[in-house]
Write a structure and sequence with these properties.
Elements: H1 4-15, E1 19-23, E2 58-60, E3 65-72, E4 79-86, E5 98-104, H2 115-118, E6 127-134, E7 142-152, E8 159-168, H3 177-184, E9 206-207, E10 216-218, E11 226-227, H4 238-241, E12 271-272, E13 282-284, E14 296-298, E15 368-369, E16 378-380, E17 387-390, E18 394-397, E19 402-404, E20 406-407, E21 412-415, E22 418-421
Parallel strand pairs: 2-8, 5-10, 9-11, 15-17
Antiparallel strand pairs: 1-3, 3-6, 4-5, 4-7, 6-12, 7-8, 13-14, 16-19, 17-18, 18-20, 21-22
Protein name: Lytic polysaccharide monooxygenase
Keywords: Signal
Length: about 450
């Protein structure tokens, strides 16, 4: 017979077989499975105890950048995902979700498989994927709900959504719908599809959001295939389903035909717990003429991060060397790897060369730093963008030679620059929720 501990470990392993958010800590983490949503479970994977706040509230300041960590191995060949917020502490179908960052392609990976099959890993060897997301600087302080939503590329047509409680600011502010509308009303609503067979994206395609928002990250692998189309035989309900992110529309939405123009994009894969094998690419932004132009991509090392909420550009999904997100402590100065627009403000005085870290196109293997710094202090590092383990209970993302410590989510550990589940067991899991046409597929 299995002991209770063994059964609990098996349940935890099954929950991580697909993908779920580990940081910020989601609502009801103990009951949150990694399975995709059904129509009845929208939003936030409805279940008993769905809005239980485990431990402490997730803190996030206006203008602050944080890494969003997604755990699992069944990456379904990647896909596209969005990060959104709503003013409702316990969201319903009437809640309106405003997109603060979109990833088009390579979310959560760029391989044409699942990691456990691609690398021959046991199912429970968890991998950590992260994007960095910046909270809008003009957002009123108060209680919000943050969401990660994902439409996978391969396998069944699925929609994943995990939600987490966040407190923006000091905790003393209370954001009203009116004040939030002024800051968030112009942002696009979260895009929804694949909840049922009336509105499905195309298998094998990285979906292009019709309005990705002001902060956009675009994948760059050779496996990418972009399209904004739906399955021709399964799109009768798209007019309704795709608008579910708008809820009752109490915050407000951009006027039809005038989508919010992104100011950032990136030809980079999501940060992983292992060093990337391909250097990030730089870009030349579109010219400030009246006609839109496709961005030109040049092969250059990644430059310094820059703000995800800057002046708009012509292209809806431009490319940029920074991923549309920033590690803690990142600067808001323009990236040195991109050509500034003609209409941009005059540049500030150049920083002395000695103050800038050396850019490397061959990342070093991240390691551990067993010294836990005081709150807010910097841990020196050499590999920009890599995960740095700080002590036994903290980690940071290397940014310009500095990693700022952040607490690991419960049940997580960091070793050798890898964030993993603290306990690993070899457990066999049945392949579930496969449609008949994918019964021979290797994608869960």
């Amino acid at each position: 017979m299995f002991s209770q501990t063994t059964l609990l470990l098996a349940f935890a392993a099954g929950a991580c077989a697909h993908m779920r958010m580990a940081s910020p800590k989601p609502y009801g983490f103990a009951t949150l499975s990694s399975a995709p949503l059904t129509m009845a479970e929208f939003p936030c994977k409805q279940r008993p105890g769905v809005y239980t706040v485990d431990l402490a509230m997730n803190q996030w300041n206006p203008g602050e950048t944080k890494p969003i960590i997604i755990m699992g191995t069944a990456v379904h060949g990647g896909g596209s995902c969005q990060y959104s917020i709503t003013t409702d502490p316990e969201p319903t179908k009437d809640s309106q979700w405003k997109v603060i960052h979109s990833v088009v392609g390579n979310c959560m990976a760029s391989i044409m498989a699942n990691y456990d099959e691609e690398a021959g890993d046991p199912l429970l060897v968890q991998k950590a994927f992260n994007h960095t997301v910046t909270m809008p600087s003009n957002i009123p302080e108060g209680r919000y709900t943050f969401a990660w939503s994902w439409m996978n590329k391969l396998g069944n047509r699925e929609f994943y959504m995990n939600c987490a409680p966040i407190q923006v600011g000091s905790g003393t502010g209370t954001a009203s719908t009116e004040s939030a509308a002024k800051a968030l009303g112009a942002l696009p609503d979260m895009f929804v599809a694949n909840l049922d067979e009336t509105c499905q994206t195309i298998h094998g395609i990285d979906f292009v959001y019709p309005d990705p928002g002001q902060s956009v990250e675009r994948g760059s692998s050779a496996n990418l295939k972009f399209s904004a189309d739906f399955d021709e035989t399964k799109k009768s309900g798209c007019a309704k389903v795709t608008k579910m992110g708008a809820g009752a529309g109490k915050i407000g939405s951009p006027s039809p035909g005038t989508p919010s123009t992104p100011s950032q994009g990136s030809p980079s894969t999501p940060s992983q717990s292992t060093p990337p094998s391909v250097p990030s690419q730089g870009t030349t932004p579109t010219k400030p003429s009246g006609a839109p132009a496709s961005p030109q991509v040049s092969q250059q090392p990644a430059a310094s991060p820059s703000s995800g909420y800057g002046a708009p550009q012509q292209s809806k999904i431009p490319t940029n060397p920074n991923g549309g997100g920033f590690a803690p402590g990142a600067s808001s100065a323009p990236a040195s790897g991109s050509t500034p627009q003609a209409s941009a403000p005059a540049a500030a005085k150049p920083t002395p060369p000695a103050a800038q870290p050396v850019q490397s196109t061959t990342p070093q293997t991240p390691g551990d730093n067993n010294t836990t710094p005081a709150n807010g202090e910097c841990t020196p590092c050499t590999n920009d963008g890599a995960v740095v383990c700080i002590g036994s209970k903290q980690f940071g993302l290397c940014n310009r030679g500095c990693a700022v410590a952040q607490d690991l989510a419960a049940g997580m550990a960091c070793s050798g620059g890898v964030v993993v589940a603290a306990t690993k067991r070899h457990v066999h899991f049945p392949r579930a929720h496969l449609h008949r046409r994918f019964s021979a597929s290797r994608f869960l």
